[in-house]
Amino acid sequence: MELNAAQMMREVASSGPEQRAKPGQLSPLALMVAAQPIIDAKSPIVVAGIVRIVEFALIALVGIVAYFAYVYPQYGQVFDLYYIGTAFAVAALAVVAFQVVDIYHIHAFRRPASQLAKLTVAWSLVFLSLVAVMFFVRLGDLYSRIWLAGYFGAGLLSLYAFRLVLYGKVRRWSREGRLDRRAVLVGGGEPGEALVNALAQQEDSEVRLLGVFDDRGDERAPNFCGGLAKLGTVDDLVEFARRTRVDLVLFSLPISAESRILQMLKKLWVLPVDIRLSAHNNQLRFRPRSYSYIGAVPVLDVFDRPIADWDVVMKSLFDKVVGALALIALSPVMLLTALAIKLESRGPVLFRQKRYGFNNELIEVYKFRSMYVDQADATAAKLVTKGDPRVTRVGRFIRKTSLDELPQLFNVVFKGNISLVGPRPHAVHAKAVDRLYDEAVDGYFARHRVKPGMTGWAQINGWRGETDSQEKIQARVEHDLYYIENWSVLFDLYILAMTPFALIKSENAY
């Protein structure tokens, strides 16, 4: 069973309103589970990547320090660059060797005894390889044997010390739940119970099952499945995932229930979660590479969370660095804008407005005030139209040029709830004609699977300003979904570079 995310998005976007998930009232048990305190998670992939970087730097540093501690003073303080190059080569070779012996994953970090044994073997093989190269190409006379022996011993001890510290850190993170993948099960009965039992048998599994969601009645879907409580229906799951962190949705339904699965996916694809279909009990078998695994439990990948793991780190760094530089560069323009607003009308310079952010979380964004203070519309219940009397003269200019959006750099740099590039955040009561955006466009909330942005793909393609028709907000959403599917740092750079040119075409902004 092979599902294409882009095709599913187009199918859902064109589906009728009867297929949309409408949030309902959660059961008391679901509310209790959702209200449990959670702590920020750490990506195992990012943790393993950082360990590789730290160990590369540590190994290179030990070799360089050993050189300056012994070789450099002994040989008349003559700088030999090949020692430094060798230290970096050993570091690179060691990281590759550690990867080969499989000690760069969370499970290995939890088992210091076995990982230190593998580390010792790999480290020894690295130095044996180095000595062999020196012998065969006759470079032995170039290197100090004391440096070589000291590098081996000090490097090994440094790696031991780092791995023991890492073990303590990972153990604490595991106790706190920072490494857990919070998961829910869709579909109960015997298949669900078999999946729960299979997951329970996995050693060091990071999957933490929160409960079961099933659309069937109580006579076909009992209140408990493998010890997990039924928390509600699939419609309830959408609301549940808005209230608490859900990382993974596991379908226990058989592949033969294709129509049921598709109906559920049309409700769940708007969530920023990984969606997997269990292949544990399916008799239909694919090639091994068709599966991904949770421990030893095979699953089929249906949807992946957009912008995850290292992509999150890269986008966050991009936002902080470029956002801070933009804030510094544009500070004179912002000061002049603030002064103009203050001179024209009474009231605060900044305007705060509640908008939908990542996963429908309500966030407060900053803008320059463009309306008279007694006519400000914090919820955007009424669209701003051409010649709107609520807008000041300065307000018309800064809205047309988007200067009113510049204070959102504070959101980007300091609060982190907005990105430089992403789907534009809309006010909670924003409307297309007389309908709320989520009522006008099926699948509208799928654009909230990533953080909103100050500018976006829709904006540089001319979809900004007044949304006086359903077609306009539909086009915005389609562009936002394209951006989410195709995100990259280069794509963000392109959108930022094109934003000033898009602002020149401001006929729809007032």
- Quote the distance from N terminus to C terminus: 49 Å
Total discrete domains:
3
- By DSSP (H or I, 4+ residues per run), the number of helices equals 17
User: What's the β-strand tally?
Assistant: 14
In order across it, which strands form the biggest sheet?
3-4-2-1-5-6-8-7
What does the radius of gyration come to? 28 Å
Mean residue pLDDT: 84
Shape: flat
- Note poorly predicted spans: 1-6, 12-23
**Biggest beta sheet attributes:** 8 strands, mixed
Proportion in helices: 40-55%
| Structural class designation | alpha/beta
> Which range does the strand content fall in?
5-15%
List the helices and strands and how they pair.
Blueprint: H1 5-13, H2 28-34, H3 44-74, H4 81-100, H5 106-109, H6 112-136, H7 145-176, E1 181-186, H8 189-200, E2 207-213, E3 224-225, E4 228-232, H9 234-243, E5 248-251, H10 258-268, E6 274-278, E7 292-294, E8 297-303, H11 310-344, E9 350-356, E10 362-368, H12 393-400, H13 408-415, E11 419-421, E12 431-432, E13 435-436, H14 437-440, E14 453-455, H15 457-460, H16 470-485, H17 489-504
Parallel strand pairs: 1-2, 1-5, 2-4, 5-6, 11-14
Antiparallel strand pairs: 3-4, 6-8, 7-8, 9-10, 12-13
Helix pairs in contact: 3-4, 3-7, 4-6, 6-7, 11-12, 11-13
